[in-house]
Every structure is written in structure tokens, then in C-alpha cells.
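Hi all, a correction to my earlier message: I attached the wrong file for DMT(Drug/metabolite transporter) superfamily permease. Here's the right sequence:
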Amino acid sequence: MRFDYLLSLRPSGSPHRRASLIFERFMTSASAARENAAPATPGAPASPLRGILFLIASTVVFSVADVITKQLASTLPPPEVAWMRYVTFALVIIPVVLIKGGPTLFRSQRPSLQVVRGLGMVGSSIMFIQSLPHLPVADATAIFFVSPILIMALSVLFLGETVGWRRWTAAAIGLIGVMIVVRPGTGSFQPAAFLPIVSASSWAVGAVVTRKITGDHALTTLAYSASVGSIVLSALMPFHWVMPNGTEIALGLCMGVLFAIGHWFVVMAYRHGNASLIAPFSYVQLIWAGTLGYLVFGSLPDSWTIAGAGLICMSGFYTAYRERIRALQRKFSA
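and the right structure:
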């Protein structure tokens, strides 16, 4: 899923908070995606090439996980598939929290914001999974890449950030790309194409709320996300539950494990290099999504989807370039 949203937020705030945002972005899907990255680990040599390779590896893992998610969503209700993902996530992260810091790490200085953030993330996950039975993985992935634009807009409205005309222009080009993929008003239009947009919007809300959470450890944020998602989805299960067979249970566990591995790859990637350098390589996921979608489901992106995805990538690359320029300007003006 989606790392380019990392570039839509300035690299301020604690390393713990930035690391948690990176880890969480891919709870929705493998495109993504994904906010501010943690700096290189103290004492660890920075290796941009290694960071790029970790990020590319994560896009492969997340693409495979998305394909499994699409397969599961064709036979199980999407909320149940999301529940499988969150329960697996909780089973991984909560023991880590208890080992690292004990029950004190479950105490947040801003618990209400943590809950809102968790609701945004789980809402994003449900909407994206809901789209997969109706859309090719590549299309859903490309549309979700609108999330950095939404985060940028919400940051202006609610965080008072300043965005220059160059980044607004890049955002407009990205939106045009999304409209080309969605193609409203044409015979190729599918109403389900709006679901990844709703998913990206919900993710953007959670991402912006993350900027307001200060003082909490990364594991606290992750524990809240896992807990909120698991509780909300468990409450929905009596209304959406379908008994999975053995194959579906195995695929669900595999999906959860792949997402956990992908999260770790993302964290490692941003520990080895600058976000503005590494993040654009997240668009490689569009290649894997298209290839795996064709190999598994026989769905090949059409020329319109490829053209729209190209504009979205151009928008993301230019945003990365501008973010790098701004970072250099701040460095030399300090």
C-alpha cells in the first residue's frame, strides 16, 4: 500500500510518533502508503540504498497481502476480513507492548484523540477491503494514492500549515489522475471506485489526528489502533459473521503475518534514509498490484488506468522533490 503520504506532513514531532504513523499506514492496504518517518536509528549507519530496498520489499509483501485480501473478500464479508487483519495485528503488537513497557504503555495523554485516530484507521481499512471484490487491485491501489493530497488539505484546514502553489498544482494533477482512473460519467465507471476515495479520506483524518497526539510512545499508539480496531470490528461480527473454512482461516493468518512483516520493512526503510528520497519508490507497488492482479485474477489495467496512475506518480514525485527542497532550505536557514 501507500507510502507517499509521508511527504504530505512536515517532519516535525517526536520520533516515536513518526514511527507509529509509518507502521500504521499499511493497516488499510498495501498501497499506501503511507506520514512522517522516524530518523535513522542513533548509532546505525544510514544507507539510502538499503532503505530503498526495504521499501520495495514492503511493496511486494503488501501487494501479495492485498491479493489475499481480495480473495478473502470474495467469499467473506469485508468487515470479517478486516477483523482477521486487526485481530492478528493485536496478537502481535499487544504482547510487544507488555514486554517492552508493561501496562503503563497503554496509558495515553490524549486517549480521546487516540480513539478518533483508531476509528479513522479502521474505517479506512473496511472501505478499502469493501472495494476489492468490485475493483482490480491495481485500480483500488492507484485511487488510494489520493491520500497525500487529502492529508495536505486537512493539514491546511486543521493544523494551520502553509502549502505553496507548486504543491497545490501537483495535488491538482494527482486529482486529475484519480479522475482518469475512476472515469465518472462513462460506461467504464463503477460506483465502487469511490470506496478507495472514502478509505483515503478516513485514513487522512487519522493521519492528521496523529499530528495532534504528543507525548505518547509509538507502541501506545499502535496498541490503541489495534485495540480500537479489534473492538469495533468484533462488535460488528454478529451482523457480518460467516464461518470461514480451513483455507480461509489459513489465508487470513497469512494475510495478517504479511502485513506485520510489511510494517517492519517500512520502519526499517525509513531508518536508513530520508523520507523524501525513499517515499517515491512506494509507487513501485502499482507494478506489483497490476502484475499480481493479472496473474491471480486475470485483470490487466487498461490504458486509462495506466495513464491516471502515471499522473498520480508524477504528482507524488514532484511533491517529494519539493519536500526535499524545503528541507534543504530549512537546514541552511537554521
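Sorry for the mix-up. The first helix runs from residue 15 to 25.
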